[in-house]
Design brief:
Blueprint (H helix, E strand, L loop, with lengths): L9 H8 L5 E8 L5 H9 L5 E8 L1 H8 L3 E6 L1 E2 L9 H8 L4 E4 L2 H13 L3 E4 L15 H6 L9 E4 L11 E6 L5 E10 L4 E2 L7 H7 L2 E10 L1 H4 L15 E4 L17 H11 L2 H13 L4 H8 L1 H6 L16
Parallel strand pairs: 1-2, 1-9, 2-3, 2-4, 3-5, 9-11, 11-12
Antiparallel strand pairs: 6-8, 7-8, 9-10
Helix pairs in contact: 1-2, 2-3, 3-4, 5-7, 9-10
Length: 325
């Protein structure tokens, strides 16, 4: 193994980079490419007080919140599609005041990550003008004042300094940058030094990755860097942005990883049922998260038949004909 080899186990990656109260960005989109192996390892290591940033996440965010790892979240949408249009533990935590939250649109969250990636303190947009997102703030002024890493304002609206014609927007919205301590993403392929190739939609993963101080990448397939450089135009992230590479087959399970496997409707239906009840949810965590040593053992627990059922067909990239209801 060379000095530039960043491969390590998920246990080591989480232990090394994610601490209590870390500002953590979670990649993926609703039921797609959530870094679930990392999420479960964070829960197993019983990390708490996390400040979460997500674009539109589902299962990963819901399980972190349900396990009591999260103190605050900034997000556009938390949902699991047909299984939970609004994630169940996420919704319950907000309705009961268990966590602090701030709400932005999908586009606004992407711009905030992009600002962080660009190294600028904010980006202007006209997106959101005329909506309640500008008026309704989640974090209290006291919470923002006490959290030195947060901007004092959710956003600002100002006169457009370049307005010249009547048809030009009179106002612009200034969105504060996000620079997480750590971003975690799950991808189809990565090199041992950290070069990343994402197949299919990238969502906001690239912006989230570039905005972070540390980046953990889990992957379905691990290859030598020389192979990643054969077709450099297919790579989204260069190796020097990455701190840890974890080979983790089925690392997004039970969410989907395009080209590799679909989401598991049976698991997600079971999860929806147990998430509605505190006792059932606690039992679920004991059996499926704390009760297994790692993600490989979780896959053993759900069984090879379940994994085979969701295997992606080619060229569709998902499991054609999968019973999803």
């Amino acid at each position: 193994m060379s000095e530039s080899d960043k491969c390590m186990s998920m246990v080591e990656a989480i232990r090394r980079f994610v601490k209590p109260e870390t500002h953590l960005s979670v990649g993926g989109f609703t039921l797609n490419r959530n870094p679930m192996a990392a999420v479960y390892e964070i829960i197993r290591q019983r990390l708490s007080g996390l400040h979460i940033y997500a674009h539109s996440n589902g299962q990963g965010v819901d399980e972190l919140i349900g396990a009591g790892c999260v103190r605050a979240i900034e997000i556009a949408y938390g949902g699991n599609g047909r299984f939970a249009p609004t994630c169940i533990r996420f919704r319950k935590a907000i309705e009961t005041g268990q966590i602090n939250f701030e709400d932005y649109s999908n586009y606004q969250m992407t711009l905030r990550f992009m600002a962080g990636a660009m190294g600028v303190p904010f980006l202007p947009t006209t997106s959101g003008l005329g909506t309640d997102i500008l008026q309704k703030w989640g974090f209290s002024p006291e919470f923002r004042e006490a959290e030195a890493r947060l901007p004092r304002e959710k956003l600002l609206v100002m006169d457009n300094p370049f307005r010249r014609r009547d048809e030009d927007s009179a106002k612009v919205v200034l969105l504060p940058a996000i620079n997480p301590d750590v971003t975690i993403i799950h991808v189809q392929k990565a090199g041992r030094q950290g070069t990343v190739c994402i197949d299919g939609l990238t969502f906001a993963d690239v912006e989230q990755a570039k905005a972070a101080r540390h980046l953990i990448v889990s992957c379905e397939k691990l290859v030598e860097e020389e192979e990643m450089r054969l077709e450099p135009g297919k790579n989204q992230l260069p190796f020097f942005l990455v701190d840890a590479v974890v080979l983790q087959p089925y690392g997004a399970y039970p969410t989907a990883c395009y080209g590799c496997y679909d989401y598991d409707p049976q698991y997600l239906k079971m999860y929806r049922q147990v998430a509605r009840d505190d006792v059932s949810y606690s039992d679920y965590l004991e059996e499926y998260v704390y009760g297994v040593e790692n993600h490989e053992r979780l896959c053993d627990l759900v069984g090879s038949d379940s994994l085979q059922r969701i295997k992606a067909d080619s060229p569709q990239g998902y499991a054609a004909g999968l019973e999803r209801s």
